[in-house]
Amino acid sequence: MGSFDAISHEWLLTHIPMEKAILKKWLKAGFMEKHVLYPTEAGTPQGGICSPVLANMALDGLEQALSEVIRPTTRKGRKAKIHLIRYADDFLISGSSKEVLEQEVKPAVEQFMRVRGLELSQEKTVITHIENGFDFLGQNVRKYKEKLLIKPSKETGSEPFAELHI
């Protein structure tokens, strides 16, 4: 099940600033596969033209929610170095400590998503050190000594396209 297969239609209809009748039709449009119409009872239609926009709008406010838990202007917040990177329904949150990510950031994200009828993917949610590397949007990111290496993840399999020295 994809991350937006269960998004709350009620939450979207209440919070997305657009014509509600049109939004309701988009949400209930369903999808066709091999000439069979599959209705959409929950979530956003897979492959629908509005789904990426709705995904982005549903996640709007995540950065604000994180800054309320760990205020970036405080000493603790500056030390935590919490940063959010988002692309449609994929996001990455970096921080300076595993403990802060596990004990403060992850519960805040889970609460933010729960209100929207969403939950973190157990398969994709990983807290790891950058020296061990991680995959994000088809790329593998890893720090090796003083180099930040970004190359296609093993599923993609081609040459690195970025190398940053830090």
Features:
166 residues; alpha+beta; four-stranded antiparallel sheet; two-stranded antiparallel ribbon; 6 helices; 34% helix; globular
Folded structure, characterized:
- The chain has about 170 residues and is α+β, with helices and mostly antiparallel strands.
- It is about 35% helix and about 20% strand.
- It has 6 helices and 8 strands.
- The protein has helices spanning about 10-15, 20-30, 50-60, 60-70, 75-80, 100-115; strands at about 30-35, 35-40, 85, 90-95, 135, 140-145, 145-150, 160-165.
- The strands form 3 sheets. It has a 4-stranded antiparallel beta sheet, with no helix packed on it.
- About 10% of the residues are buried.
- The model is unreliable at about 160-165 (pLDDT under 50).
Short note summarizing the structure:
By secondary structure, this protein is of the alpha+beta class.
Which percent range fits the helix content? 25-40%
How would you sum up the major sheet? Answer: 4 strands, antiparallel
Structural class: alpha+beta
Question: What share of residues are in beta strands?
Answer: 15-25%
How many E strands? 8
Strand order within the widest beta sheet: 5-6-7-8
Average residue-wise pLDDT? 85
Q: Topology of this protein?
A:
Layout: H1 9-15, H2 20-28, E1 31-33, E2 36-38, H3 51-59, H4 62-69, H5 75-80, E3 83-87, E4 90-94, H6 98-115, E5 134-136, E6 139-144, E7 147-152, E8 162-165
Helix pairs in contact: 4-6
